[in-house]
Structure to design on (500 residues):
């Protein structure tokens, strides 16, 4: 207990010393510990005397001051560099942002169009629904519509369903397409999903250079009118078709796929009676013998397909 | 007594100004606190150049962090001494022990009957002998004596710098002074 009292007394005296009192002032407060406190406080004061002398401290302070000034200069230079870097980064971001915004109105053939596609790909990476599928196709189709309206020449690619086939004039995904007689393509029927590569012209039309079948539309006639393919007597004309590749469409050979436009005034001699239900509707222009839509399938049983003449 | 550290009110004002980037305040802090920090380091480090390097590191750290969350917030002197202490620790490494003279060889039971003579002797002890005796103390005893007597830190700040409780500091400073007194008494006998 006495020891604890002494510990407290010593602490109080050290506090008094730090406040500027002297040892005698302090020991008078604790007469019961006066001798011991005096001895210990004298010892403590020795520690202060043992510290580095004023000259050494002064020299060290000058030396370190120079180091700090050098450090400060380096730090300021670093800060300047960082500011320049940050300003450059912000400016670059603004420029990139402006270019990207401007590119959103770009059309195929424009210099910024590739940037537009790139930004769409980036956005598509974050939102798959935006990057591909119907939304992406709608954007491409709008671009084509604008190109046609502006009568600008550009190479375009798009996908869509075949909505109309009238000779060389087709409509695919609401876009009127002029199909060149010389192009090669897979057999395409109404409703098929196709990919089109073509060119818009200064006259405001789109000329297809290549049409690729993506998905064949299942033919409703296969289930609706099964009797058409079964009841007619088989004809031995099936040997003609293997010689003709169905994958390519030549204007003259494509005619069987376009019975309505090919024969606007059919004569009784070249129209099979069994095919007559189809003649009134372009929707059934595909031969009934290919309900599966497989282009490589043998069409020999299609009695409703008029022979070329 | 001639203590060099400014009042707490002045310290707080300087710290606030320094935190807002006032260069004059930073310069003032350097002028006011460098001597104490350097002396504190110097008592641990024998080599003057190394002591300068460490003191420089302390103030560079202060300049780089003042006004940030890593800089001083409550007690500037506490923060500076704490950083100085850490830098000294770093200098010696975490594993390597502080340089100490074998204390046990010196210490015997104190001769309590000769208190008056001992006090007279202590008054005549030279700086060199005190430094020598200080180095025989355990490291935390050295520190508490330096912080409390040489740098006149209050109990609270000393506890913060050393990472101990106030009651632990009271006991520690008692043991430290008592041990130093006994060492100096032994030196007297041997001398």
């Amino acid at each position: 207990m006495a020891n604890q009292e002494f510990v407290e007394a010593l602490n109080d005296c050290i506090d008094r010393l730090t406040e500027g009192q002297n040892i005698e002032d302090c020991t008078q407060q604790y007469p019961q510990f006066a001798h011991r406190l005096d001895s210990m406080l004298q010892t403590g004061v020795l520690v202060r005397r043992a510290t580095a002398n004023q000259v050494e401290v002064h020299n060290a302070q000058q030396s370190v001051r120079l180091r700090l000034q050098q450090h400060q200069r380096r730090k300021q230079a670093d800060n300047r560099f960082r500011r320049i870097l940050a300003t450059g980064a912000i400016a670059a971001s603004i420029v990139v942002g402006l270019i990207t915004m401007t590119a959103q109105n770009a059309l195929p053939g424009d210099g910024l169009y590739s940037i537009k596609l790139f930004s769409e790909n980036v956005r598509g990476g974050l939102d798959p629904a935006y990057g591909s599928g119907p939304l992406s196709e709608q954007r491409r189709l709008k671009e084509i519509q604008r190109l046609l309206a502006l009568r600008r020449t550009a190479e375009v690619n798009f996908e869509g369903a075949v909505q109309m086939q009238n000779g060389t004039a087709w409509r695919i995904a609401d876009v009127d397409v002029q199909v060149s007689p010389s192009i090669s393509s897979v057999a395409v029927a109404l409703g098929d999903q196709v990919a089109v590569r073509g060119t818009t012209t200064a006259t405001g039309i789109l000329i297809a250079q290549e049409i690729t079948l993506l998905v064949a539309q299942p033919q409703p006639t296969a289930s609706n009118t099964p009797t058409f393919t079964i009841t007619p007597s088989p004809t031995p004309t099936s040997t003609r078709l293997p010689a003709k590749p169905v994958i390519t469409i030549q204007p003259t050979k494509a005619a069987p796929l376009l019975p309505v436009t090919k024969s606007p005034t059919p004569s009784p001699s070249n129209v099979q009676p069994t095919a007559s239900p189809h003649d009134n509707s372009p929707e059934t222009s595909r031969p009934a013998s290919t309900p599966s839509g497989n282009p490589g399938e043998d069409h020999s049983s299609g009695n409703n397909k008029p022979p070329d003449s | 007594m001639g203590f060099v550290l400014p009042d707490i009110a002045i310290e707080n004002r300087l710290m606030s100004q320094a935190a807002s980037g006032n260069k004059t305040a930073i310069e003032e802090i350097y002028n006011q606190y460098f001597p104490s920090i350097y002396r504190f380091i110097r008592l641990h480090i024998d080599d003057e150049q190394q002591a300068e390097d460490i003191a420089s590191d302390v103030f560079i750290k202060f300049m780089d962090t003042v006004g940030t969350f890593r800089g001083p917030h409550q007690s500037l002197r506490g923060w500076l001494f704490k950083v100085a202490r850490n830098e000294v620790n770093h200098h010696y490494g975490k594993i390597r022990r502080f340089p100490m003279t074998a204390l046990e060889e010196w210490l015997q039971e104190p001769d309590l009957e000769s208190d008056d003579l001992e006090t007279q002797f202590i008054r005549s002890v030279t700086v060199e002998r005190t430094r020598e005796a200080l180095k025989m103390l355990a490291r935390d005893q050295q520190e508490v004596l330096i912080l409390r007597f040489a740098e006149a830190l209050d109990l609270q700040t000393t506890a913060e710098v050393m990472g101990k409780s106030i009651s632990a500091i009271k006991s520690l400073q008692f043991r430290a002074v008592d041990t130093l007194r006994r060492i100096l008494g032994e030196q007297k006998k041997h001398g």
Summary: Strands of chain A lie at 154-166, 169-172, 175-179, 193-200, 206-215. Residues 56 and 62 of chain A are 10 Å apart (CA to CA). The two ends of chain A are 129 Å apart (CA to CA). The interface with chain B takes residues 6-8, 10-11, 14-15, 17-18, 20, 35-36, 38-52, 56-57, 60-61, 63-65, 67-68, 71-72, 75 of chain A (CB under 8 Å).
